[in-house]
Give the backbone structure.
Amino acid sequence: MDFGWSHYFAACEMAWDRDLDVLYLIRTWRVREQTPLQHCEKLRNWNLRWAWPHDGRNQTLAGAGVPLMEQYKRGGLEMMHEPARFEDGSNSVEAGVQEMLDRMRGDRWKVVRHANDDWLEEYRLYHRKEGKLVAEGDDAISASRYGLMARRWGQTAVTRGRFNRPIEYPEWKRA
């Protein structure tokens, strides 16, 4: 997810075929001027673990000093334990965009068209000026880039169910 208020908040659902190393962008949701609680109400039923940007630990006026990622966690979303980053610890926008582009050209980035109009709109408008990326109107792209960076923490439905189940304690009988 990519946080936003006056610019878009965006969230993406992604799947990773580990065997073929193909990332699928399943669906995107983008909205302006809604609170984290309103976002949570929409996204809670997606039942995902959420990657988030490095600024998610920042305190916000709207959250009365509560970091953004914590507001989403309190809203019922399962947030990843740390911000999205590459395995080497970096979070370079340029590196993320280049990997996305390499995947697109290598047929290892697939976009489900009917559920990603917002992402496709941003992709068509994405550009460089004097060799530098223009970071405007790139909220859905940023959200998918965070998913790309955090894919190593993804889980299958089976392992997710096992990991999140309640702890079962054996019955102790006294003699």
About this structure: The CA atoms of residues 54 and 83 lie 5 Å apart. The beta strands are 9-17, 22-31, 49-50, 78-79, 109-111, 128-129, 132-133. The longest strand covers residues 22-31. The chain has one domain: 9-163.
